[in-house]
Amino acid sequence: MNTKKSFPYHWVIVACCFMMIFTVLGFASSPRKLYMAVVPQALGIDYGPYSLNDSCRYIATAIMNLFFGTLILRVGPRKMIAAGFASLIGALLLYSFAETLPLIYLAGVLLGIGMTFTGTTMTSYAVNIWCKKNKGAITGLVLCANGLGGAMAVQMLAPMINAGGFSYRNAYRLSALVLAVVGVLVVCFFRNAPKDAELPGVGKKKARAGTWEGIGFQQAIRKPYFYIAAVCIFLTGMVLQSIVGSDANHMTHAGLDKAYIAAAMSIHSLALAACKFLTGVIYDRKGLKKTMLICDAAALVTLLLLIGVNNSALGRAMAVGYAAISAAAMPLETIMLPLITADMFGQKSYAQMLGIISAVNTAGYAFGPPLTNFIFDAIGTYIPVLWAYVALMAAVTVGFMYAIAASHRDRGQTAAAA
Predict the structure, then answer these.
(1) Which residue intervals of the chain bear CATH 1.20.1250.20?
(2) Residue 375: CB partners within 8 Å, gap ≥ 6?
């Protein structure tokens, strides 16, 4: 009798995903605020036109996410990851040489494509197909690498970026080198799927024990709760990215000094890694509905605390509270997206639905911050728009609860009919 156990290769895949998030989001995304402070001045470009670089990135990411499921089924994740690293390296090198806005915008497009193939969407997909148990906790563990990689990248790159002149170009080139080394290692060790599994969406085999086979893509997009969830995801991305893009400026106008704001933001960074992992653990134990309620409640409290920030003792305490509790809301735009997809729609259409949900979320990123800052430019304060976002998030919470309940009813009926 053969009792030899096969090597648990899913942990190699988890390690590959961790390294992707660590380097891709850490070195290619996290330092963008540092570059924003020096690149426009070095090139003699206004901040407004330069900031459209982020819009190019998010639009490219949203568009590519729409085709994510189709590409997964046609070429497989490993080739997509290789193309993603190549796109990111090209973007960073182009940033290092670019002196005009068209080239900077092109680099932003390449960055967005690379992020789609190597970032949250891809790693969430890989965890879903490779890991049989504790998918929430493992996804949270992988996404913790974002904060860790960002902390290391900032320490390594900040001296070069802040040295003045065109020294920031060396930071881009070092980042490209780091991604090249990690990219080669990841592509060498990554595998498309376990030998006993089909890629989600193919529908040739039943889903593994403990997972829900789900409904087909064409059936899923006809469900009313899909559109309710999509609107809620768009609005959530819009609100959360608006908060992230305006919190420091709001605190500055509220009278807080930059050192205090920086200290509060460091608390946020430390709490964020822990909250992503804990969110995954809560999902594994309590399910989607309770996890969403916790995250949505954190988003509402986050907005209320940010509104209350001022230079009084209570207002400064609210700034610290905001930094800590906002970390519990941010999983709504990262780890919760694959969990929503798997829970509401199952394995049969997972790849296609994850791509669409990620695209909708990213579209919220592109829309929210410009709208919020346009209102600030017009009236000189963020307070009215923050109150509007409180009402919006309350409505989103109700909408999500309805969509989840409807999907679970549909899931029960599907199981009963099988």
Answers:
(1) 10-189, 217-417
(2) 382, 384, 385
